[in-house]
Specification:
Chain A is built from seven helices and 16 strands. Chain A has 314 residues and is α/β, with parallel strands linked by helices. Chain A has two domains: 168 residues, HUPs (Rossmann fold), CATH 3.40.50; 121 residues, Rossmann fold (3-Layer(aba) Sandwich). Chain B has 264 residues and is α/β, with parallel strands linked by helices. The chains are: A alpha/beta (314), B alpha/beta (264).
């Protein structure tokens, strides 16, 4: 029986179970023993999905201390000899996974979006070169298979509930960070675009009228997202960037305004039900994925559609 | 204060074409550039040096000799020392090996702080800064959007990291590794005309495996724990798109679609 260790998605604990899909694709359903390692107090959403839940005792390590968390995962690996260790590709996960791989002297594949199994080999798929291509990577060497998983890339369908055994991890951390958190202030962007069913996304074609997107997003009860171009130009914050170097989103409606649709942008679109693009170039790559293509200027489109919605609502 | 900036010279990914049939990337003609996040890290270091002439800035990169012209460009800024670690035996190294090679060289150099970018443009990962920190036994932080220049010295650094919901201020004891993002907005200064004409070919230090003494089985593909075996094109499901104009009829079409799907 294979053993897989999954570290908590500290941004959304309930998403931790989605990483079980990665283990299933590697080993098959029912062919592995799952261990979840949690820092958070609440583990209810994971009960019944994992064979083991290991809760790190409160106060043992700061939630922003990757060195301390690596100590814990390294110790757990020494005891359990995991076949695979899966880390969510969150901000914290990106600092844990490479450090842990270094300690365990094992290879790490980052930003994994798919798993292929052929002839007994597990090929780990990840986007490369800003999402232009997908690379199939083999893990070599004797260490555990380590991956960081791109958020929203996998979706797990639960099977029969398991009898979860909950245990506490209490061993002191030997190499905590010399980092102190001084101050936390709320970001202006307080929501995660991955949670929104409607995304009004802007690209280089709306750099002059980007604030207008918020009016349309409000009217459709959605959120504003952006392409890398607007983020690189400082017009939009990185937290709302869609694409290979941003987030993977799966809204019901994605409205792409002035977005060309580079491979790196489209790498962030997954399971989108409806896509409307507005573009001065009707043959832009994103248009071929669209249900409706509006050929024209996105700023004028917003004005006209807003007027139509205003008339309808009055 | 002594700062080492660890940078990567990367291909401009927009000019790379994937030949899937032959499983190769045709990027030889691609423009090489300083990784954008790394440029921000170097820009901050040069800003510190501008206000403190005693500050010593070294730029270190590992890569093929084709990276040399871009490294020489950096020497034309106010960089005090440039080092390119380059040897055919290092080619094909994964991040685990790369961080070991960089770490062995940097351990021989005096420094108070390592500055790096967060993500690399080509690989898209942030492995090397983290694994370099682990190699050197240092703390490290990714995603830095601002370093407080007034609280940045050889003993500590105070900086901000942004995520979806918060902007958090941290203090890290130095030496440590600070990894900056493009969101920081730090910009490299322009090269003066006289510097642009300056011959710096003798100023770039080239470090090879003769200096670092790795066993050939520990570096390159032989020492790496991951191996790229296939490349696939990105494919997307195409739809029967309906093209409309940006006029009354087109707006009505979009409006009706939104209404029919329940978005209005």
């Amino acid at each position: 029986m294979k053993k897989t260790c999954i570290f908590q998605d500290t941004e959304k604990t309930q998403n931790t179970t989605d990483l079980l899909e990665v283990s299933e694709r590697m080993y098959g359903r029912g062919q592995f023993e799952s261990h979840a390692v949690l820092l958070a107090d609440s583990f209810d959403p994971l009960m019944g999905s994992f064979h083991h839940i290991i809760r790190v005792a409160k106060g043992l390590v700061d939630c922003y201390d990757p060195r301390g968390i690596c100590d814990i995962l390294e110790n757990l690996h020494k005891k359990n000899r995991f076949d695979s260790i899966l880390i969510p590709g969150t901000s914290l996960g990106e600092m844990i996974a490479p450090r842990l791989a270094k300690r365990l002297r094992t290879g790490l594949v980052a930003g994994v979006t798919d798993i292929k199994k052929e002839g007994g080999h597990i090929e780990i798929i990840r986007p490369a070169f800003s999402g232009k291509i997908l690379e199939g990577v083999l893990h070599t060497g004797n260490g555990p298979v380590m991956m960081s998983i791109r958020p929203n890339a996998f979706e797990y369908t639960p099977g029969d509930p398991l009898q979860t055994v909950v245990s506490a991890y209490t061993e002191p951390v030997s190499s905590p960070s010399a980092v102190t958190r001084l101050h936390v202030k709320e970001n202006q962007q307080t929501c995660d675009i991955r949670d929104s069913e409607v995304l009004i996304a802007g690209g280089g074609g709306v750099k002059e009228s980007f604030p207008e997107l918020y009016r349309l997003a409000d009217a459709l009860k959605g959120r504003v997202a952006a392409s890398r171009k607007l983020v690189d130009q400082g017009i939009a914050p990185r937290s709302i960037q869609v694409g290979q170097s941003g987030k993977t989103v799966s809204p019901r409606l994605y409205m792409a305004l002035g977005i060309h649709g580079s491979m790196q942008h489209m790498a962030g679109l997954r399971h989108i039900e409806s896509l409307i693009s507005v573009n001065t170039a009707a043959n832009a790559p994103i248009c071929s994925l669209s249900d409706i293509v509006v050929h024209g200027d996105a700023g004028k489109f917003i004005d006209r559609l807003m007027k139509k919605i205003a008339v309808y609502r009055s | 204060m002594k700062i080492i900036c660890v940078v990567k010279i990367v291909p401009d990914v927009d000019s790379i074409v994937c030949d899937v049939e032959n499983n190769i990337l045709t990027g030889n003609a691609a423009r090489m550039m300083l990784n954008p996040d790394d440029a921000c890290a170097l820009a901050f270091a040069l800003g510190v040096k501008a206000s403190d002439p005693d500050c010593f800035v070294e730029v270190v990169s590992m890569g093929p000799m084709s990276a040399r012209p871009r490294m020489e460009d950096l020497l034309r800024l106010a960089v005090d020392r440039g080092t390119l670690i380059s040897d055919p035996v290092f080619e094909g190294s994964d991040t685990l090996v790369t961080s070991a090679v960089l770490g062995r060289y940097i351990a021989t150099r005096p420094f108070d702080c390592l500055l790096t970018g967060s993500h690399s443009l080509d690989g898209g990962t942030a492995h090397v800064p983290v694994q370099l920190a682990e190699t050197l036994g240092l703390d490290q932080m990714l995603g830095i959007i601002r370093i407080d220049p007034h609280r940045f010295d050889s003993t500590r650094a105070v900086f901000e990291v942004e995520d979806d919901k918060t902007v958090t201020t941290y203090e890290m004891a130095m030496p440590g590794v600070l990894s900056v993002t493009r969101q920081s907005g730090y910009k490299l200064p322009y090269v003066t005309l006289s510097d642009m004409r300056r011959d710096v070919s003798d100023e770039l230090a080239i470090i090879t495996n003769q200096d670092l003494c790795f066993s050939e089985t520990d570096v390159g593909p032989a020492g790496s724990r991951t191996k790229v075996v296939n490349r696939y094109p990105q494919t997307y499901e195409k739809k029967d798109r309906h093209i409309v104009g940006n006029d009354e009829a087109g707006i009505s079409c979009v409006f009706n679609f939104l209404k029919q799907k329940g978005f209005l």
